[in-house]
Amino acid sequence: MSDRAHRETDDILVELIKRIEKIFKTVSFDEINLVPLYIDGEATQNQRLKRAKDFDEDFLVALIVSAVIESKNETDRALQDIYRLNYGWIDSLSNGTALPLREFDETKIRDSARKTAEKMFKRGYTPEEMKKEFGRLLRKWKNVCIFHARTEATRAESKARLDAMERTNVAGKRWDAIIDRVTRDSHRRIDGEIVALDKRFSNGLLYPGDPEGPPEEVMNCRCTMQPVDKAGLQNALKSGMIGSGGVQMDNTGAGGAIPRSDRDRQQRHANLYYEEMRNRKDDVAAISGNTGFSINDVSDIKNHVFRNTYELGEKNSYQIYAGL
Q1: Does a structural domain hold residue 254?
Q2: In terms of DSSP H, where are the helices of the chain?
Q3: What's the pLDDT tens digit per position in 270-293?
């Protein structure tokens, strides 16, 4: 369920993403003369690395970083509008204070560009291959900026509502998920969950977009939060139920599953389970007999999943944003 302020927040976000896409669209590598910078395959590695560093400073950083920072500045302005809009939705007598903004680590943007430049010169890319690689890097950082806009828009909306609720002495808060095919399971499960204003929801967050939460609970979240009066909070507590899923809570405030907020416990459980699977001796033959796959094939699959290690390559946009 969404209210007017949430719908208007979505409208602000849609226009913001259009502006971000326009910023990155105006960046063109076609105007750069790459030929003088191209070093053929006979060059020494030191020559290539030196040229890569020069190229990084003169062109790549200037283009990538300027587009990212311009996009972030656009986002920061939109976030303040979202904060004021949603604060006023709860407390019409005040617009609240300004929203603290997240800063980007410019060094990480530069490092990303530098690694790309060094790789191209090590491998002796042609000018056309360089342009394609730059375009791929630019698209990646555009996606990072859009991740940032979407994630921070939810934070701005929810933080404004929480700040206003605290000012107006609201008793509790309700998590409202946007239910569709892309809603993450953990947010679908707590749709309608009610907790006291100073308490965390069962996914470990104080509000949708809470920056203290893990990336998988926060990034690209579209949920919102509604105020609950004292009577509504008391009714929820009396029922012994939380959320629309009707999950019975025990006296520790947790269900049977490990809470998503307890990451240490999750990791310990995963380590124990994987170690148990690695040490089992009877599973390969049993699976082979039940499926018709050969013992060698099943053994190879088990090694692939539980024993072998792999180089995962470059980080994607999601991972880059999570590490900024």
Answers
A1: no
A2: 4-25, 45-55, 61-90, 106-122, 127-167, 185-189, 215-218, 230-239, 263-279, 283-291, 295-302, 317-322
A3: 777 778 888 888 888 888 888 888
pTM of the model: 0.69
What lies within 8 Å, CB to CB, of 70 at 6+ separation is: 23
Alpha helix segments (H runs only) across 168-291 = 185-189, 215-218, 230-239, 263-279, 283-291
Instruction: Please check whether residues 38 and 110 belong to one and the same domain.
Output: yes
Q: What value does the mean pLDDT of the chain take?
A: 78
Are residue 127 and residue 189 in the same domain, yes or no? no
User: Do 78 and 106 lie in a common domain?
Assistant: yes
Number of independent structural domains in the chain: 3
Within 10 angstroms of residue 101's Cβ, the number of other Cβ atoms is 13
Q: In whole angstroms, how large is the CA radius of gyration of the chain? A: 25
Nearest to 203 by CA among 251, 243, 143: 243
Same domain flag for 29 and 133: yes
Range of the domain at 280: 263-322
> ∠ CA(78), CA(97), CA(18), 5° rounding?
5
Residue 247: phi and psi, rounded to 5, are -85, 120
Interacting residues of 312 by C-beta distance below 8 A, sequence separation 6+: none
How far CA 27 is from CA of 23, 31, 156, 246, in Å, comes to: 7, 10, 29, 51
Q: Of 216, 248, 280, at which residue does a domain stop? A: 248
- What's the average model confidence in pLDDT over 96-112? 79
Length of the chain: 324
Q: Can you state the angle between helices 283-291 and 295-302, rounded to 10 degrees?
A: 120
Q: Based on the domain organization, do 142 and 71 belong to the same domain?
A: yes
- Looking at the structure, do residues 281 and 243 belong to the same domain, yes or no? no
Same-domain check for residues 160 and 194: no
| Residue linked to tokens 């960046």 | 27
User: Same domain, yes or no, for 235 and 310?
Assistant: no
